[in-house]
Amino acid sequence: MRVDKPSRLPLQLVQRNALAPPQWLSVPTVDRPIDWEDADPIEGVELPSGPLPLEELKEVFGRDIHQTPAAQLAYNWCLSLIQYRRLSGMLVDAGVAYPGDPNHPRISHQFGMKALEYLRATFPFDEETAAQRWAEREAQRLETELVERGEKIGIYQPVDAPDELQGTPEGRARYGPSGLDAIKAEYDKTPVEEYKPKFPQGEVQGGELEPVGKTGWLVRREKSEWLKRYEEKAAASDFKEENVGSVMSTFSRIWPSALVVAAVLALVTIASQYYEPPSRAARLFPGTPPAAATIFTLIGINLTVFCLWRIPPLWRFMNTYFYIVPGYPRALSMVGAMFSHQSFTHLALNMVHEDVGRANFLAIYLASGVVGSLASLSFFVALRAWAVYSLGSSGAGCGIVAALCLINPRQNLTPIFLPDVSIPISTTTLLALLVAGDVILLARRGVKSNIDHVGHIGGYIGGVLSWWVLKQRGDLGRRRSGADVAARRSFFPKSNKDHGGED
């Protein structure tokens, strides 16, 4: 199909929008034949009714076309060109557009379609048959050109024998017997039944292109019966067709999960306010800094849930409480999905450790996670995207990042493995860029993305709200001792100092 390329001439066969006279006013008058085989492919073929008068041209191309005699010639030329392409079958290849040349104006696709619609309504013609014949003629023309080129460069040798002798006894006597015909005749002598018993027994030997070693058919491995049974049980959950759509209202889908989120927020707020760090002797691992113990515990929980996804008998339970499914949401999935990962990459990217106290860190982590889960559920329910599901602790990680950026608003960025390098970008700027990135990606891809950007945004909101609560309580102003600060900077400190205080 030809591409409608820009012409060197201005677009003329469109609505009148220029004061200067069009360039095709100089198009000469051409007597066009009625038979397309005698016509020029560019000049076209004359219509059976002859050139159209101005009033009919207005009905075809619009009432606001140019009305000069030269313009009428150009419009009739357009009809002649499209008519030639119809009759010759060239329409299937060239289309209705014309790029223009020094003697003819450019025809846009829209303008050419107007001419084609008129011609089809006025002069019916079997364009499909003409297109097939055009394709056959083009194939023959290309073959002839290739043969002539081969003879010119010496690949083929011209033969004086007439074409009708090719494939005849006279032609075979000239060139000798065909090797392919001999092979075919030999195989035709062998009954087909001799080959049938060899295929299932693997007795058919390969030829020269056969790789060394045993070969066989690739057969898809069938799942075991017990695995199929657990798959069916996992699929036979409450997420059924009768539970999706208008059966449940938007409010009934969201309010149970909202109550769970409110309960979690209240619990973490109270727990973080009245939490008392245990002494070193009362801790389970006294030699491990509290920050490391907290992070390792979260990683352990996530790894445990990650492994539970690999146990088929637990699939239905995991689908119920560790997925966020807008089609039939479960309230407890607001918490369960925050610790659910089905791939190790997703798990590794979401585990975040920040320099805050244990109680406040866990409060921010849990609060941001459930707020992100609720935001994700509400968004997909509002879009009626019932078959979408969400899981992972991305919202919790985003909340931790947001809180850290606001706790140290004027601190520049420092790479983890290059502590002496400072990037002149404040943490608040980083937070703004992260939020803007999720908003842009959400606006561009929506539910088509495999990343829950709404959950990320909800996590950022949860982190900001957690920072505001800590600021109002005055927890951000508390300072630790130098030993505690040094211990926080490494999971494995070199000294055995007492790390029993809060970290």
Structure notes:
Among the domains are: 23-125, no CATH class; 247-488, no CATH class. It is built from 19 helices and two strands. It has helices at 54-61, 69-88, 91-94, 109-122, 127-153, 169-175, 179-189, 198-201, 225-235, 250-274, 290-308, 315-321, 333-336, 344-350, 358-382, 394-407, 427-445, 453-473, 482-488; strands at 412-413, 423-426. It has a two-stranded antiparallel ribbon. It is elongated. The model is unreliable at 1-30, 199-207, 344-354 and 479-503 (pLDDT under 50). One of its GO terms (cellular component) is membrane. InterPro entries: Peptidase_S54_rhomboid_dom, Rhomboid-like_sf, Rhomboid_protease_S54. It is found in: Membrane.
Top keywords for this entry?
single chain, 503 residues, mainly alpha, two-stranded antiparallel ribbon, elongated, disordered N terminus, membrane
Helix-strand blueprint:
Elements: H1 54-61, H2 69-88, H3 91-94, H4 109-122, H5 127-153, H6 169-175, H7 179-189, H8 198-201, H9 225-235, H10 250-274, H11 290-308, H12 315-321, H13 333-336, H14 344-350, H15 358-382, H16 394-407, E1 412-413, E2 423-426, H17 427-445, H18 453-473, H19 482-488
Antiparallel strand pairs: 1-2
Helix pairs in contact: 2-4, 9-12, 10-15, 15-16, 15-18, 16-17, 16-18, 17-18
Membrane topology: Multi-pass membrane protein
Pfam family, one: Rhomboid
Protein name: Peptidase S54 rhomboid domain-containing protein
